[in-house]
Specification:
The protein is of the alpha/beta class and 368 residues long. It folds into 2 domains: 154 residues, Periplasmic binding protein-like II (D-Maltodextrin-Binding Protein, domain 2), CATH 3.40.190.10; 150 residues, Periplasmic binding protein-like II (D-Maltodextrin-Binding Protein, domain 2), CATH 3.40.190.10. The protein is built from 10 helices and 10 strands. Strands 1, 2, 3, 4, 5, 6, 7, 8, 9 and 10 form a 10-stranded mixed beta sheet that branches. It is globular. It starts with a helix and ends with a helix. The N terminus is likely disordered.
Length: 368
């Protein structure tokens, strides 16, 4: 029997109402999956983060609590520090997904600026920082330093015998006992490029080739460098007693009770030498064309705040504040550019040298 006209109209109205209700209910889910449902798509900020997840999450959670803006973070892996996210930003440049890039080093940030992929933003929170912390046209901002240090096993190396300079590690007495991470990415690559700037191309190549000729051991990452020195051996049983890594990985190994000590290399290098301890800042930048520019600015403002630098200094990462107004308490083992001679590196020039550096380290270490 055919439907009566009145009943058919009523049923259609109920069907339309039901469909409308279903759309409203599903809108938050669609928002999360596709950034849809109108203006609410700006209720989150997408962050690509090369900083360790453990160090970043507390600050991101506090930002969301205060602003109501959710942060969707994407972290990289220990093996591909900063390079994976840097490459993704380049691949996505025609349709950016990222709003803010929190890099754990500076060279790839400089390259993004040179490629025109960053938005200038003079954050009010960045005003107290030294001029050296501001990129050209305020396209990036440096904060929270880490240092490249030597870690030694105190049971295997008496204090009187410990190295003072990274150049000491090529000495025959350390043959087979030194470990570093492959200098193909992250702070290890930044160190290689910095040495190309400070020692010159020939001097830096000789340093790494001398290490290789001295039986250098290679670890997957900086964390493993610290762990292997703490254990006094590689997973294959080769004794290692000294390594080059970052302050945060070294302090974590000290906190775990391992018999290790931290040495800030070349701290007393001659004044006319560019050598010294390498300090590497975190950097923040806003990606051009990202989905939420206003949210990105708010996140940058918060991450540059004294509160965040204090938290990064006083939690287990123990990163050195660059804002002179921050008076954080650092561990007694920590040194800063105020207490040791810092490496006199020109990061802009180091970025110029990066293609040569990458070609060299890939040739020397790519097969290891």
């Amino acid at each position: 029997m055919e439907n009566e006209p009145g009943k058919t109209t009523t049923r259609r109205r109920f069907a339309l109402l039901a469909l409308h209700s279903a759309i409203l209910i599903s809108c938050p889910l669609l928002l999360a999956a596709a950034g849809g449902c109108g203006p609410s798509s700006n209720a989150r900020v997408v962050l690509y983060c090369a900083q360790d997840e453990d160090f970043a999450q507390e600050s991101l959670a506090e930002f969301t609590k205060r602003t109501g803006l959710a942060v969707s973070p994407k972290f990289d892996t220990e093996a591909g520090k900063s390079v994976e996210l840097f490459a993704e930003i380049q691949v996505e440049q025609d349709r950016p997904r990222c709003d803010v890039f929190w890099n754990n080093e500076i060279l790839n940030t400089i390259l993004l600026q040179r490629q025109g992929l960053l938005v200038p933003y003079a954050s009010p929170a960045g005003a107290p920082y030294p001029a050296s912390c501001h990129g050209p046209d305020d396209t990036w901002h440096a904060f929270a330093n880490r240092a490249r240090v030597m870690i030694v096993n105190t049971q295997l190396v008496p204090e009187k015998d410990r190295p003072r300079s990274i150049l000491d590690l090529a000495d025959p007495r350390w043959k087979g006992r030194v470990v570093i991470a492959k200098p193909l990415h992250g702070t290890s690559l930044t160190m290689a490029a910095s040495l190309f700037d400070v020692l010159g191309e020939d001097g830096a190549k000789k340093f790494y080739q001398d290490l290789m000729g001295n039986g250098l051991q290679i670890a997957p990452g900086n964390k493993q460098v610290a762990e292997w020195v703490g254990q006094g051996k590689t997973p294959g049983g080769q004794q290692v007693s000294v390594g080059i890594t970052d302050t945060d990985d070294t302090l974590e190994e000290i906190a775990s009770g391992s018999p290790v000590a931290m040495i800030f290399p070349d701290r007393d290098a001659p004044k006319d030498s560019k050598l010294g301890t390498l300090f590497i800042p975190n950097t923040l930048c806003i990606i051009r064309g990202g989905p939420n520019l206003e949210g990105a600015k708010k996140l940058v403002d918060y991450l540059l705040s004294p509160e965040v630098e204090t938290r990064l200094a006083e939690t287990k990462g123990h990163q050195i504040p660059l804002n002179p107004e921050v008076k954080a308490k650092l561990p007694p083992q920590m040194e800063t550019p105020k207490t040791v001679k810092a490496m006199q590196v020109d990061f802009e020039h180091a970025a110029d040298l990066l293609p040569k550096v990458q070609e060299f380290v890939l040739h020397e270490f790519g097969g290891r």
